[in-house]
């Protein structure tokens, strides 16, 4: 996904680093990385440590870091191009729930062109780019760290470790607790669901559609908070 | 950040969490929090949790301890990027700081 933009902007001083938030590690993310064959660093974060470190709650999220190691934009939805799901057609034989899911997915807020234009502007202008934020703004815009969210990180880590050790039932209990404590963290939800596979809706007693509707479709990918 | 014991050696604490025990306390990059350890070979995780305002969750059945994230304030306490180290797909460690001198866009994604 990012390879094209990376090849365009690497000669001008930009590197892309992708981080796969996959509890199943290289087994899950490896085939995608092999297919993309990126020339940029492509890392794996099984415990989702970047969630707490940067305040990431969903993917794709992008963080800009300047030449001196200062963050100039914290996590925000980062789409390099229009995702195929935005143009998905509802099949004639779709059931009402299938239809609703496709319609909700199509309505997700995606601003790929605007995001990529901002990256290009920053690469060209550096600190003079109107998209580069001051250190104070970066800190103030980052997520407040509640004790509930901090505890969710511990439960997610326990869930991952126990799932990996073959203790699936006990892993699910910790993942559930992580979801309860940090309901808007989609990386905790979706990764835990993916470990279960097709049965996750019955096991967790909920679905992506139900949770997205509960939290508000418009909040899934918030609008980019940047100048027009 | 998972531990198999409620007390850890300073080296293990640093390997798992990035927090290094120093004379001035627990330090990570340019930040230190007040902390005194009576014995650097046996640091109670509960004390670390208190110093960092991070919850410590104990799974009794599996004898595991998980140190959660720091709480209070904002996710980014400073605009200085944390010196993240993560493995690539072959398991080789990669340090974010090795890219100093270039602009970086860090992108979190997933296969799911």
Q: Can you give the helix content of chain B as a percent range?
A: 10-25%
In N-to-C order, the SSE pattern of chain B is EEHEEEEHEEEEE
Structural class of chain A: mainly alpha
Regarding quaternary structure, what we see is heterodimer
What general outline of chain B do the C-alpha atoms trace? Answer: globular
User: Which consecutive residue ranges of chain A, at least 5 long each, have pLDDT under 50?
Assistant: none
Mass-distribution shape of chain A: globular
User: What order do the strands of the largest sheet of chain A run in, or round the barrel if closed?
Assistant: 1-2
Q: What is the N-to-C succession of helices and strands of chain A?
A: HEHEHEEHHHHHHHHH
Please give the alpha-carbon distance between the first and last residues of chain A.
24 Å
Radius of gyration of chain B: 16 Å
């Amino acid at each position: 996904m990012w390879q094209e933009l990376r090849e365009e902007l690497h000669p001008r001083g930009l590197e892309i680093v992708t981080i796969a938030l996959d509890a199943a590690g290289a087994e899950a993310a490896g085939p995608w990385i092999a297919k993309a064959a990126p020339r940029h660093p492509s890392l794996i974060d099984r415990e989702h440590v970047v969630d707490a470190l940067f305040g990431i709650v969903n993917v794709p999220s992008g963080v800009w870091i300047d030449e001196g190691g200062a963050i100039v934009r914290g996590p925000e939805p980062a789409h390099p191009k229009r995702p195929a799901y935005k143009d998905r057609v509802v099949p004639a034989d779709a059931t009402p729930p299938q239809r609703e899911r496709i319609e909700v997915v199509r309505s997700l807020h995606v601003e790929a062109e605007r995001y990529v234009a901002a990256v290009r502007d920053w690469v060209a202008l550096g600190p003079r780019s109107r998209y580069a934020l001051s250190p104070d703004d970066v800190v103030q815009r980052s997520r407040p760290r509640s004790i509930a969210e901090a505890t969710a990180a511990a439960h997610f880590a326990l869930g991952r470790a126990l799932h990996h050790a073959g203790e699936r039932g006990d892993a699910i209990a910790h993942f559930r607790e992580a979801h309860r404590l940090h309901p808007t963290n989609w990386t905790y939800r979706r990764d835990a669901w993916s470990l279960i596979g097709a049965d996750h809706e019955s096991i967790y007693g909920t679905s992506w559609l139900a949770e997205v509707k509960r939290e508000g479709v418009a909040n899934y990918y918030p609008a980019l908070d940047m100048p027009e | 950040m998972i531990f198999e014991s409620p007390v850890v050696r300073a080296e293990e604490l640093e390997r798992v969490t990035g927090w290094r025990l120093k004379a001035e306390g627990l330090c990570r990059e340019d930040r230190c929090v007040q902390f005194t350890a009576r014995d650097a070979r046996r640091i109670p995780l509960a004390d670390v949790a208190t110093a960092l305002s991070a919850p410590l969750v104990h799974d009794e059945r599996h004898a595991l301890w998980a140190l959660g994230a720091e709480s209070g304030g904002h996710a980014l306490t400073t605009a200085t990027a944390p010196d993240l180290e993560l493995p690539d797909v072959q398991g080789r460690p990669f340090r974010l700081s090795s890219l100093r001198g270039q602009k970086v866009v860090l992108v979190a994604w997933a296969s799911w």
